[in-house]
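Chapter summary example: a protein plus zinc ion.
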Amino acid sequence: MKAMRLIPLLLVLIFVSCKEERLSEMIIYGSNIYTVDDQNSKVAGIYIRDGLIEATGTKDEISNYEKEGVEILNVGNAFVIPGLIEGHGHFSGMGNMLQNLDFLQSKSWQDIVKQVEGSVAKSETGEWIYGRGWHQDKWNKAPDHNFNTYPKHTDLSEISPDNPVILIHASGHSLFANAKAMEIAGITQETPDVGGGHIVRDENGEAIGVFEERAMGPIRKAYQEFLDKRSQQEIDAAWNKSMELAMQECLENGITSFQDAGAKFHELKRYRQMAEDGEFKIRLWTMVRHSSQEMEGKLAQYKVIDAGDGFYTCNAIKTELDGALGSYGAWLLEPYNDKPNFTGQNTTSTEEVQSIALLARNNDMQLCVHSIGDRANRETLHIFYNTVRAEEDRRWRIEHAQHLDPADFDRFLESGTIASIQAIHCTSDAPFVIDRLGEKRAREGAYPWRSLIDHGIPIVNGTDVPVEDINPMENYYASVTRKRSDTYMEFFPEQAMTRLEALRSMTIDAAFAGFQEDKKGSLEKGKYADITILDRNLLECSNSEILKTQVLYTIVDGDIAYKK
Ligand SMILES: [Zn+2]
């Protein structure tokens, strides 16, 4: 305002009239508008002005704002809720997957080979084919040529003799390569296994095409070299395309905000530029992910809150202490039930995580640590408690907080730690959790949402897209039923959330987990007009109806960004 006083009156008048032209006003009327405020109030109308919620109330109260130029959206009995927040996903990873082949829904290896064949036909000789999301446990028939449930590369090598193929496993912890990719990466029968990795070989010692953990290195490197050869123009075009696809995917799913669980400096630069250029269609909140050494002295350059009119924030750091449960990477207090004498992987040293914790504290940023096993969770809580206390309101987060020793719940409270859970992982993992942990540990501490909530520990819910599909209805269904949507297999339903808790975990509680509850997460005066409108009432419909839910409108910053 100070600067404005210096501007001649004429300019002020021009500025004001321009501003007025941009000003948009809308009223939403409906019989199922849930504000998700502290009392979970229902209202009959919302008045939106210039991207913000100006008022909520009865039909009579809101009708006072009706005048020429105010758009009126009457949604009848549709379910109106605060814009959904994806609490833990990988934004550029999702965009990348949408641009490439996606196998999350593939039901057999034969289907995947067919998808790759389609891509090969459209590609130039030598161009890499990239895909992600295959999972042998999701196939309803075994591959024609297989070894220990894994497919052999033969089929892929036959249909793609000249194009290297790299297919990342759904977990991200292994990949599949065809003969051409292995040739370029220099993999031969003599290539030894590296520490922390494994090249899967058949009875003759031939690599079948599957590379686990660190053994993925040479194939990934060869692919990266191909990517690096692209011109700047090609790199920019691919980035823009992936961003466009990722934003569209969010809007189609009713998601107005996305919490990105780990971006590199070069991505953060691009995000910030996008925000400043007004290119974001959803709001992005990111965690920066680098080693303590790489971040030392650099964080101030990247830390930013509400850039581009509240569309971009980077005020958190991501690191991890262990791997995933399925691949025995979760770091456990006691050995695996189905791998005696083995307690999992500590992937980043506790000293390094402690150094990162100090960086987070000194830069006044949130710290988000990936911890899956009970040992990793305990170590993380120890580091948090060493560095911050609940009274300081730092809102540090454990990403996944998947398997906990009940003795550690109090430490969450003492350190003010948030459990960042992904409900859909529970039902995806359900078929193997008891094998890994045994019945007792699985029942008492695996995906223990009810216990967390009853202890008063804040939670935030996400999907970990592209590890899982971003679909919030699948995630909501898993949250309240703990059942798989395909086989209806159930995993300790006593730990389910209530309908309202699950809704809060994707709205106001998610906003809280990013220090944004004063701006979003509920439909209240002064907050962003980010609103999701669904075709049925998620608080009242039957369980099976949840999965049929359609997004009718996604409203971001007061504008209809998606309409069915
Ligand atoms: Zn993740």
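Key point: DSSP finds 23 helices and 25 strands in the chain.
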